[in-house]
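Lab meeting prep.
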Amino acid sequence: MRIESIHISGFGKWSDVTFDFNDQWQVVFGPNEAGKTTVKAFILGVLFGFPKGRKAGNQLYVPRSGAQYGGSLVLSTKKGRYRVERLGRTKSTLTVTALDTGLEMPNPEKWLADLIAPLEESDFRQVYSFDESELGAVAELTADDFDQVLLSYTRPQAQRFLKWAGDREEEGQALFAQGKNGKRPLNLANREYQKLLAERPAEQEKYSRYQELLANQEALDEELNRSRTKEQSLLKKLSDQESLTKAWPLFEQAVKLKADAGSKKVNQQVQLETVQEVQRLEQTGNWLFEQQQANQKEIDKLRALLAQPQEKDQGQVMVNDSLNQLLNIQIKKQGLVQQLTNFAAQFDHGLPKALSKREQSELASSSVMTTTLGGIALVLAIVIVAVVSAPLGLGIGIVAAILLAKAYRDFQARQLIAERYQPFNMAEAIEKQEAVALAWQQQAQLQSLDQEAELAKKQLADNLVHYQIVDGEKLATWSTEQLVDWTRKWLQSQESTDTESTSRRLNELLTTGQTLAKKIDDQKQALSQILSEYGVRELKDFYQLVNEEKADEATREKGQLIHEQLGQERYEQLLSLFQEHGAESFARLEDELKRLRQDLQAIREDERGQQQQLANQQSEMKQLTADGGLAQLEQKLANQESDLKADYTRYLAKVLAKSVVNQAFLGQEDSLSKKVLEQASAYMAQLTKGRYQELELEKGRLFSTEDSNESDSKRTFQTAELSSGTRDLLFLSLRLALASTLHAEEPLPILIDDALVHLDEERREATLALLQEVALDQQILFWTFDEKLNTGQAINLLEY
């Protein structure tokens, strides 16, 4: 059997910790008070049961953390791998699970007993588990006692039962022997038993009450621990909530600053670059306008030249005139479209309708005066009705209603006008009336140009067909652009050299004029796009925005400083609260703070009540056990009852025990004794470097044979003649030999807790080497505080 790992849920200082025993020779390192002995006691507790009551020298290992008592071992046996789990101290539960199949063993206690059988807990502790106290005690034993100890390891079961049988025989004889007072022990025990029975009802009632209080105490302890845990959690939440509440004014300031800063779309650097781009576009527009004026003068000049009488074909002249007419109309139309587009872009809802005279009159008049007069008239009417005359008051009231109705109608009219001329105010709307009227005239002119363009296109097409220049059906499929392009090419091919050159130059200038118009249009659109990105329509507003950016940057920096002061986590918590509850956020914070304080006060009141209740119960329990009557009576009754029931049968068992044991055990253990001595002789020879070769058992005494280097003879010593250091080695040899021989079918792990501290350095190194050799076939768990062994796969308890 091998222990692969242990998991401690709660045992002494250890809670929720796992130790993996990866090696056959597994060193567990730790200084004093590191928990080495606790780990060893845990392994024995899982295998044989945890201590259930506090006795002399019996430690309970109650978890310091309050975790569940117990834990589990993972065992590797010849039949497979199993997890053995034992939880609880007073009412522990044992579970054995086959890890290969996941099934639980139906009778775990029997399964565990069968695994270690025929050994019991005392046998396992005597053979497989030992520590420094046992080896230290060897030096204090007399010669005879030391021989008896050694013999107990050569014949472990026979020696123990022989001594037990002898003691039983003496006890049996004394049980019925007459004492010095002339009375027999059995009669005295019977009278004592009857007396205890008479006292039992009262003590039984106390016992029941004590058990009830004990159960309540455990429940109160658990409830008090839960209350304390909840109190700590509430204190943490209260601290966090107070921090959030105190930080709220800063957060509000940060939100306001962020909102103010967020109204700007660009930072200072981008605005400076944009200013440069706007200035460049403005300069480019001025230059393009100058180029357009010069180009138009050249066009007019060439047209005048071409208008002079020339000897041209009538068809060519008619086609050329109609083409020029169409091109002129297109240029005018393009200019008007651009002007209307730029002007209409200033308004949110497109080009508004011009104000009528009535609307201008309404804007010029003040509704405030009308409203004031109406209000005064209404108050006066109420006073007159109440004091003077109802009919007169009613007449004045009608006048007041008319004035107020007019004021409300004027207000609605002004609102409609303001919506139509957004984003301009009323004063700006009035200032733009001439421009709006001009725009609507240009709109009408544009419609007229559309009609003229269609007539010019039709005239050009009719001339081409009339003079049989282009087929009518083919012409019907052309667009205006195709018609113009084809006509230009045809005219160029028909003109004479001078006329052709002049016309070509004219067409080039016309094309240049279109290109310049397109560039001017692009320049205006680019400028308008930049301004619209910043929410302005005029350059003066844009430059004002640039000047305001410095102040906005200072606002952003201040908001960032507040954000850093709050911290990212706290800022995000407050932001989430603000997004969910808005203006009610601070009230929510204060309500939550108040609720947490009330919860904390309530839990502390509960704790005080629980502590008082616990103190009252402990006081009552102390009174119940003040004279020790409950515990002593139950123990005496159990002892007396058990003794009286078994006295007669025990007498026979005690007297006959010695002969029964002699027959049952001595013959069976001769073979085991021989194996133990052979194995111990080998271990002793290795530990003493061949000095002591053989151990012999003769007439109930143990002898050791020394191999002398001076001669071929061998000397034999009784164990009492050996030095104390050699006796230590002999004790270890027999102990290890029995551990490796006794349970050969399923070798059990050996648990050694700092058992070598009494050996000198040389003997200690030799013993460590032997233990590591034994560990090749049988797992050894070795607890030590020696830092030299804290290497490789050693488990360092200080790391847990």
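Slide two material, second protein:
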Amino acid sequence: MSSRIRSLPDDVVNRIAAGEVVERPASVLKELLENAVDSGAGAVDAQVSGPFPFTLRVTDDGCGMTREEAELSVLRHTTSKIASADDLDRIGSFGFRGEALPSIASVARIDLVSRPPGQESATGLVAEGGVVRSVREAGAPRGTTVTVSSLFGNVPARKKFLKSERTELDHLRDVFHGVAIPGEGISFRFADPRGEFAYESREPAVDRARRHAGDDAQYLVPIDQSSAFFRVFGWAGLPQIARAGASGMWFFVNGRRFRDRGLHAAVREAYRGILPPDRLPVTYLFVTCAPSEADVNVHPAKTEVRFRYPRDLNELARHAIGKALGDSPAGPSFRAPTWMDMSPESVTGRRSPFRPAPAEPGSAAPAPLPFASRDAAASGERFFSSLAPVGQLLGTFLVCEGAGEMVLIDQHAADERIVFSRLKDRYLGRSAPVQRWLHPEEVELPGVLADERTAVEKFLARAGFTFESRGVGRILLTGGPAALSRFDARRWWDDFREAIRAQESVPKDILDADRELWRMACHASVRGGDRVTTERARLLLADLDDAVAAHSCPHGRPVWFRLTRAQLDAMFRRSG
């Protein structure tokens, strides 16, 4: 009886391996770029051309290969990167599995030309369908050029799983940047039907990341923290450039781009309360550690990494991002201009239909605009304080001038963040003033159990409220945090009571309490449409520098946006 278990032919084995390594054109480009970097190249050039699914060509000026090495390179599990099992514990190269070229050759045509230094002629090799078709001498400069064409030509069913041409081009560019951004000391060039992009060899990785971000780079803040095992540095994006998906989250370890669920969760946790739940940040995180601390032999595509101390890395990243987002962006000092009233009333002489009606006679009203000018030069160490307000737009946005830029600030979002930070300080037990109210507010507890009433009272006390019991189901609020200067206690309590009824529970820890502190801050903050005095605007900017995570309101909306002089010149097509 013949055995039902048999060894698979080499062509079948190669196609199985190709299914793991070669998913799409971008998978091929990734392997070719990583081989070029491992060759010790100083310059790498990648080109995408031809009909879909494209012809890919990668050229490098690295160590090259002899004829014997070229022939071995397209055989399975042949590599120059490792020699023993011990090497797997300290992998310092991109490739090491010896699967890339044979896997590609099994589903495409490979034209390889390579010449090592000191050899007069190069070796030309053609492999297709997992078989070496020809080997010849050729003329070529030092280094290696690999051209891959007819991808999935012998497995047309695989083409059906590819996305549109535009999507696949996006993936190709993404892979190029994923290898080139951390590739310090190497110049990279990429060309496809949509254009070119290049990195200079002298360009540091963090600068490459900023250039990759394009116009969004103005909303990146630097991070750099170290622990006993890791260093995390790079850029954390402000809420202004948050995205609906994870396309803006870039993680690198020892020069290799990777994915990690734990680190992804840590980054999201760092942005809790800064971004809305349905938005994800833009981040460029570079992780360095000893090779023995990171296992890259987890996935055939080498896109996943397993760390020996993942909790340490996740906590380090969360702390680094949290610290960076809590600081204000740096800005140079400049001389403040004169405030101008940019409201429709000032320009046209007529009251805007979008403005609230004037205050009733005898009621307190803010001093009219314009604001007075600030004569002293602002300090560059406190970003918001360094801005000079020059106008108020639509009664909602403060128009400010910085050094070579215009900054728009949402006055409600800014004040909401300030009030929330002060409430959070009080809740965390830090010194924050409490004031008694001239007019106490008697409120009714929802129909909750006695033990839940205790939890409600505990929350109120921690938040800074003073109160007295007024029998079953009633509380007299006699005071609250001083930060709630224009607080509508009745309206907030109605919202609070409805929230308790809806969730059938009460705040039990700081994350639940945040939601109620957000509501308080919202009810106590300057509203859109409110006119503000000169002094109020200046205090708001100064207080914003002292607030934690001042770049967004507690709901995750951006507090400010900037337009640089260059952007304004481009809008008006000014050349100088």
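Talking points for slide two:
The first strand starts at residue 43 and ends at 49.
The radius of gyration is 31 Å.
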